[in-house]
Design brief:
With 239 residues, the protein is α/β, with parallel strands linked by helices.
């Protein structure tokens, strides 16, 4: 557990995900749509206009296209230089993600979330990557194994906060924790069991955004989509 500052010293809590940075790779993101042209510049411009050094930013995965930490480090350095404290979760494209212990020793202003938790005011920031929903036709035994592991990691993260006396939770996923806003899952059941107040998630892009409601309250839990193209590359204040 890490508590960045004393309670009351924070200003705002923001979220964004799916930065898909690639400063050392030839990976132009505008192949996914014209809105992605120079998207890193858009993120940086919007970020520095609203976020201060005392703010906290949750980044829910798909940080860098790099396949190893050597390449990913340049993208992480770019994030480190932006204002505020950052809490990063793992996405399905974050192949550079290695030892969580080593990652959490690399930066002063970036913390990495896996089986642990961090603190914003009196909230525990918990979470895990998540996985595809069980209802998909191509869900197989390999997916089942990963799904069970992600369930375990979510519980480990939440329980680590409970054991430290926390009872208010904000949870980060990369994958949506449900198939759609009307569906339940093992993830949503755990979130309700722990009385989680807010969940942020990403992963969805392009055509998928046309049919999604990015701000849903279901059984007392608020689910907020933070994919950067959904947010028009502008970090969203969530608290």
């Amino acid at each position: 557990m890490t508590q960045y500052k004393k309670e009351g010293e924070f200003l705002g809590l923001y979220a964004i995900s799916d930065l898909h940075l690639a400063f050392k790779l030839n990976k132009p993101m505008d192949v996914f749509g014209a809105e992605w042209l120079n998207h890193d510049k858009k993120i940086k411009r919007n970020w520095i206009q609203k976020i201060t050094e005392n703010d906290t930013v949750l980044i829910a995965g798909d940080i860098s296209w790099s396949m190893d930490i050597e390449g990913g480090e340049e993208d992480l350095n770019w994030i480190e230089e932006l204002p505020g404290r950052k809490i990063i979760g793992k996405g399905n494209h974050d192949y550079w993600w290695k030892s969580i212990t080593k990652l959490n020793q690399m930066y002063d202003n970036i913390s990495f979330l896996q089986n642990n938790f961090f603190v914003y005011e009196d909230y525990a920031i918990c979470g895990t990557r998540g996985w595809i929903d069980k209802s998909f036709d191509n869900f197989d035994e390999h997916d089942k194994k990963i799904y069970r592991r992600e369930i375990m990691r979510l519980k480990l993260s939440l329980d680590s906060a409970v054991n430290e006396g926390y009872s208010k939770f904000i949870v980060m996923f990369h994958y949506p924790p449900f198939k759609d806003e009307k569906s339940d899952s093992e993830f949503t059941q755990i979130l309700e069991d722990y009385n989680v107040s807010k969940v942020i998630y990403g992963h969805l892009h392009g055509p998928a955004l046309k049919s999604v409601n990015g701000n849903v309250i279901k059984n007392g839990v608020q689910y907020i989509l933070t994919s950067c193209d959904y947010l028009k590359f502008d970090p969203l204040k969530i608290q």
